[in-house]
Amino acid sequence: MCSSFRGCAVKEPHDLIAELNPAHPPRLYGSAGCETWSVRFSPDGSSFAWSMGYGIVKLLSWPLTSEDSAEAVCSEEKTLNCKQTVWALAFGPCLSTRVDVSHQNRHDHELLLAIGLNNGVIQVWVVSTGNLRFTLTGHQAPVRDLVFTPNGNLTLVSASRDKTLRIWDLSKKGASPHVLRGPIYWVFRCSISPDSSVIASVCNLDSKVYLWSLRSYTFMRHLTYEHERTMTSCDFSQDGALLAIASYHSTTGWWLDLWDPYTADLRTRVEDCELCSYRSDNLLTSLSFSPVGLLLAFKDFRALRIWDMEQDKVVADTDHNRASGVCCAFHPHGGVIATGCRDGHVKFWRVPHLVPSLKHLCRIALRFSISTYQVEALPLPKKVLEYLTYRDVPKQKIVYCEEHCR
């Protein structure tokens, strides 16, 4: 079963909410150092972190005022000078609504911002004061990604070009990290399942996804592709039943694959526009599941698109700028998505307000705590089982660009 995305539901500039301009514009397009490689909202949605290039991170209050949008100047703004290229940002602890509050130590920890640097160091800053709390050393190459566990603990996972992942317990001063080894290429991205049990990671030149146990700190399994490709991003769905993987090849363009992490079955493949003669020039740079509803945002060199998987349609198609975003992040309450740009800018886009169906909310509640194998063992009708395991989605999709939308 194959379907295609034709039609652009939302057009800019009506969905562009605000834009932050870098303090130091690039001297020449393509010059290194000015890129916004990471943008993040805090777990409660009240703060926004922006790596604005040249080793500078800005902490801003959200929502922005009109003055923020124009000049990125605010009395509550904090400037963190990291003195190294910033590749990754992560707020923690992440207080999950799915975990018992009594087990989250909600009042014991300040909100922290972890920053991954080009020299392999991770700096941890206190958000309320803008002061550096401590540094984490051990990586021998740039730290490309950071993520806190969503169970409210101060557990931080880092991915590095030194081909390792490290798991840090920030609540224990001086504790040595658990080191995960195995990849033979740079580790680009990592993601943690909503129940904080599994880490997914992808490498730059590899044909497989790595799944690790966050409980035993051991390798679990691969999700394997038939052909070599460059992996760029990964993210778990809100219930952990789907794992989205972004990848591309220099001659054939990009793919966005949805896997069942329990069974290692490929559920859906989304492909770049088959009518474009320059598919090899278009790279899928980032993707992110929305924390509200079944929305999946993905950014390539041509546009930012948001796919409503429940209704199987693109609800936003915007940011049509080939020199634009390299990262994206949803606001935790929905309604807004931020994209970081290669020239140091940040753009905030309006996300359509969609109400998830009752049956989808039931699926999320069930799948958060039950694996695919456990669901398949239930005495349920076939169509219900297909819905609960996401087998009812089309097997293949093609995303047509703006030029070929009809």
From TrEMBL:
Gene name of the encoded protein: LOC113072192
One matching Pfam family: WD40
InterPro entries hit by this protein: Quinoprotein_ADH-like_sf, SOCS_box, SOCS_box-like_dom_sf, WD40/YVTN_repeat-like_dom_sf, WD40_repeat_CS, WD40_rpt, WSB_SOCS-box_domain
SUPFAM superfamilies (UniProt xref): Quinoprotein alcohol dehydrogenase-like, SOCS box-like
Species annotation: Carassius auratus (Goldfish)
Domain SOCS box: 355-394
Keywords attached to this entry: Repeat, Ubl conjugation pathway, WD repeat
UniProt entry tagged with the keyword Glycoprotein: no
Taxonomic placement: Eukaryota, Metazoa, Chordata, Craniata, Vertebrata
Keyword Repeat among UniProt keywords: yes
Pathway: Protein modification; protein ubiquitination
Protein name as it appears in the record: WD repeat and SOCS box-containing protein 2-like
One GO-annotated biological process of the protein: protein polyubiquitination
Domain of life: Eukaryota
Repeat region (WD), residues: 136-171, 329-351
